[in-house]
Amino acid sequence: MTSPVRMYDSLPLALSRLTHRPDTGRHPSATLRQHAGKQPVLQLSRPIRALGIALCIGAFALTTTGAHAQTRPKQVAQAEFEEEVVPQRYAANPEVDAFINDIVARDGFERAELQRVFSRVVFSQTAARLAAPPATPGQKNWTKYEKNFLDNTRINGGVRFWNQNAATLSRAAKQYGVPEEIIVAIIGVETIYGRNMGNFRTIDALTTLAFDYPPARNRSERMALFRNELENLLLYARERGVDPFSIYGSYAGAIGIPQFMPSSIRNYAVDYTGDGKINLTTDVADAIGSVANFLRQHGWQPGQPVVWNIAGDRGSQGLAEAGADGQPEPHWKLGDFIKAGMLMNEPRLDVGASLDTPVLIVDLPTPGQATQYRMGLNNFYVLTRYNRSFFYAMSVYDLADAIKAARAP
C-alpha cells in the first residue's frame, strides 16, 4: 500500500470514491511488448524503496474476463469531476522521454510503443489537486480521524464480510499467522469491503503525480516514488498481457479491494483462489490472501500483540510523552520505561519477562484533549508498512477489535 503504499493519513478516506473523466479518444489496444532477447529487470534505488512504505499495499492492478489486470469497476461512481484536459501533455515531453529511455534500457520496452502510450495519457487535475498539501496544515485530530472508520458501516460490514468469507480468512490466518480480524479491518478501512475502490484511470493518475506533482516540500522524492509505481504499472500490464488503460483505482494509483500500489501487486499479491490468475478487484479470496501475505512479508509475528496499554497515572503518561518521538520502528525497550517508573495497564503482561521487548510510543493527539498514548510493538510497525501513519495503524487495530467483539457469540 512495496513498501510503497501510502504517504497520507487521508488516503483511505472517502477520497477513494472520487472519479475523473478520462479522454474519450481511442486507446492503444495492443499490450506492451518487450525487445527480443532482453530480460525485464526492475532495480529500485534504496531511497525510493525507503520512501514507499507498504502497499499497499500498498501497496496494484487486476483482471477482467480472460485478462490478468484490474479493469474499471462495474459500479457507477457516486461523484464525477470534470478534468482540465491538456491534449498530449505527455507526448514529446522531455521528462517523459527521459523516463521512457530509462525503462527501455532497464526493462526492454519498445520505445515507439511507449511513446504511443504516453501520447494518450491524460493529465488528471483532480489527482493533482487531491495530492496537494493543504494551504494551511490542520491540527491532527485522533478522535475525528477514528470516527471515520470506527462506525457501524465498517463494524457491521466487517462482521458480514467475515461470515461470508470465514473459510478463506481462517486459511489465511493459519498460513500467514495474521489474525482474521486484522485482515478484515484493513479491507474495511481501505475500501469498505470493496465498495469504494476508486474510478481513476491508473495510468493517468500515476503519470500526473510522476511528472506534475503539485508544489510540496518533498516534491522530487514523491515524484520519484510515483515514477517507480508508473514503471511497475507498465511492467504489470506487460506481464499480464493487458492494456494499461484498462486499469482503474484511486487518485494516487492504489488498486482493488485492498488498494495495493502496482509494485505491491507485483511483489506481494497472491492467487489465493487457485484459478491461475490474480484478481484483486473482484476476487475476494485473492484480496484476503494478498493482504495477509503483505503483512507477513513485512515481518508480522504470529501470535504476538500489536499494542500494549500504558497506565493512566501522571508519571506513566509523562514518560510516554517523553518517549513519543514519532519514529515508527520499535527502537526502545520496555525496560527503558519500566526502570524509569512507567506502569502498564496490561494485567496479563509478564513485565519482568518482557523487559527486552522492542517498543515504540504511539501518540494520538486531539486538539483540546489530553493526547492518548499506547505502546506499539513490532506488529504495530508492520501495520504502518501498509500506510505509514500512526492514526491509520491504530484505526485498523481498533476496528479489528470492534469487529471481533461484534462477531462474538
UniProtKB/TrEMBL annotation:
Pfam families: SLT_2 (PF13406). InterPro entries: Lysozyme-like_dom_sf, Lytic_transglycosylase_MltB, MltB-like, SLT_2. GO terms for molecular function: peptidoglycan lytic transglycosylase activity. GO terms for biological process: peptidoglycan catabolic process. Residues 93-401 form the Transglycosylase SLT domain. Residues 19-38 are annotated as: Disordered. The active site is at 190. This is Lytic murein transglycosylase B.
